[in-house]
Amino acid sequence: MNYAIVFRLLGYILMIEGTLLLLPAVTSLIYAEWAVMGVFLLTAAISAALGFALRTIKPRSKVFYMREGFTATALSWITISIMGAVPFVLTGCIPNPVDAMFETVSGFTTTGASILPGVEGLPNGILFWRSFTHWIGGMGVLVFLLSLLPLTGGSHVNLMKAESPGPQVDKLVPKVQSTAKILYGIYFALTVVEFCFLLAGGMNVFNSLLTAFGTAGTGGFGFKNDSFASFSPYIQWVVTVFMILFGVNFNAYFLLLLRRFRRAASSEEVRAYLAIILAAVAVITVNIRSLYGTFGEALRHAAFQVGSIITTTGFSSCDFDLWPTLAKEVLVLLMFVGACAGSTGGGIKVSRFLLLGKTLGKELKQALHPQVVAPVRMDGKLVNHETIRTTNVFVAAYIFIFAASFMLVSLDGFDMVTNFTSIAATLNNIGPGLNQVGPMMNFGATPTSQSWCSSSICWPVVWKFSRCWCSSCPIRGEDSKSFITQKIPRSSRGIFLYQNVRSTFSCARYCRASSSESSSRRRLPERSAMVRATRRMRSWARAERPSVS
Q: Are residues 482 and 503 in the same domain?
């Protein structure tokens, strides 16, 4: 592993994030939010300083492979999320660091799930940064890095492969950096066009920017408590159209720029994507017609929600949790389908479903006719076995992660619809689900364990569960007492005690000194026991570590 090049990339990422943090600082300056501006300037300075320190690391080799690409991608998302959560905490808008991390991760991953019960009272600088995280994360932070920095040496396509949401990565032009610039050029142009259309509809500049950021990144953070329910039909139709446009594979736009209209129109993925949208809109419109005064109103809400869900944006024009069961089931299915590969949308992707369907057809043909040769083709091109294999592996990993997350959040005691749709909405980067996490609700009422599990990166779960499970411990706080004592079996509490020895030591001192706890309540292990367990784990690690000759 070339760790030096990974840390050097992280340095560039932090320096870029420090620069981007100046934009919400300027917003706070315009609206005379001096304290908020100071927080953003301080965070920008810290991020830039840390990035400059990491950038000074000189790697022996500038060549990096897939493992370096995956490592850099994972660490970059973690790093920018931690640094991006600092303004929420320091300004007091989200004082709990756990909630701030959830909000930031939801922003950068363009999930759009929020813990905030109301957003209209937040400072404009925070609202700008909250929506701007969607635009940054929409195309991927490393693609953004490739479009800006002339990195020399190494296989840059490995970074794009690590960041790519689709089954395969194709370069639009021979150079990867040029490809990244073209993608971001299309991304920026569509954002500007939507911004102009919103201004034409009577929306002010600030709100138009936030809406364009959320739509372009298919994020879903709004600046009103009712999302888009209070806006005019014109605004809703504009947002609907651009949500669908940002869910199209950007390769199709590149072909349109080259005036290859026939080739762009022949894309199987784009045609399937549009066909799914039309079919879903038709079914939902008929199903909800009785709930609205006119057919046009029902069509508008159906199109808006279908476009929002399939592109994983997460905006809402109404409370679709009140719709009939059929309409809600269609929306849940669209959560898994997602948008096109090579777009800013999430989900499994339409191309993967096409490949799975073609592979299934091939296997059925070979089962009926063993001697037949039935190759899998996409857009007239032969799909190699490696792409099919990676698609199958992706779906298998997806099902495993979904099932594990679903079982984990079931400990919180919510109903099955809430648990299922909360995982579906966050794993597919959508935002709202059904019932307790519906479009007019938020994730603020969920326990912290579900918030971490649903935040689309599971690494903070270990940190969260590394604290003491004693209900009277002042380190834990009274707010989590009921959840700890009622939702977690006592037999399993000891598993989490060994994950963070330092915090458990601190807690043990409080619990040993406490005399008010009843004798029937399970006590924490003594410090000596924790020391012995820690030494035992360290000896195991040394025994399993390979020797260096």
A: yes
Q: Which residues pair with 378 in a beta bridge?
A: 381
Confidence of residue 239 (pLDDT cuts 50, 70, 90): very high
- pLDDT for residue 468: 33
Q: Is there a single domain that holds both residue 514 and residue 484?
A: yes
If asked whether residues 117 and 85 sit together in one domain, one would say yes
Q: How far apart are CA 221 and CA 3, in angstroms?
A: 35
Q: Is the Cβ–Cβ distance between 58 and 81 less than 8 Å?
A: no
Indicate the residue among 271, 302, 337 that finishes a domain.
337
Gyration radius (Cα) of the chain, Å = 25
DSSP-derived secondary structure for 69-128: HHHHHHHHHHHHHHHHHHHHHHTTSS-SHHHHHHHHHHHHTT------S--TTS-HHHHH
- 345-370 residue pLDDT tens: 888 888 889 888 888 888 888 888 88
Q: How many helices (H) and strands (E) does the chain have?
A: 25, 2
> 524 in a domain, yes or no?
yes
In a domain, 472, yes or no: yes
Cα distances (Å, whole numbers) of residue 548 to 95, 540, 545 = 47, 17, 9
| Residue 180, domain member (yes or no) | yes
pTM of the model: 0.74
Indicate if 35 and 125 belong to the same structural domain: yes
In three state form, how does the secondary structure of 55-76 look? HCCCCCCCCCCHHHHHHHHHHH
Rounded to whole angstroms, what are the CA distances from 400 to 395, 404, 425? 9, 6, 16
Q: Residue 519: is it exposed, middle or buried by C-beta count within 10 angstroms (0-12/13-18/19+)? A: exposed
Residue 112: pLDDT band (50, 70, 90) is confident
> What CA–CA distance (Å, rounded) separates 498 from 549?
32
Strand partners, 488: none
**402 lies in which domain range?**
351-446
Residue 517 has pLDDT above 60, yes or no: no
The number of distinct structural domains making up the chain is 4
Q: Is residue 457 part of a domain?
A: no
Last residue of a domain, one of 246, 274, 307: 246
pLDDT in tens, 153-188: 444 444 444 445 544 445 454 455 667 778 888 888
